Amino acid sequence: MTSIRSIKGFKDILPGETELWQSIEQTATAVLGAFGFREIRLPILEKTELFARSIGEATDIVEKEMYTFSDRSGDLVTMRPEATAAVVRAYLQHKVYAQDPVQKYYTIGPMFRRERPQKGRYRQFYQINAEIFGVASPYADVQLIVMLVELLRRLGVTDAKPHVNSLGCPACRPDYRRALLDFLASREDRLCPDCLRRRETNPLRILDCKVPRCRETSLEAPELSAFLCPECRTHFDTLQQSLDELGISYLIDKRLVRGLDYYSRTTFEIQTTALGAQSAVAGGGRYDGLVKTLGGPDIPATGFAIGFDRLAEIVAAERQIETAVPAVFIAALGASAQARAFPWLTALNRRGIAAEMLFEDKSLKSLMKRAGKLGARYVLIVGENEMTAGTGQLRNMETHEQTPLDLDRVIEDLQQRFRESG
Ligand code: AMP
Question: β-pairing, 279-286 with 161-166?
Answer without folding.
Answer: unpaired
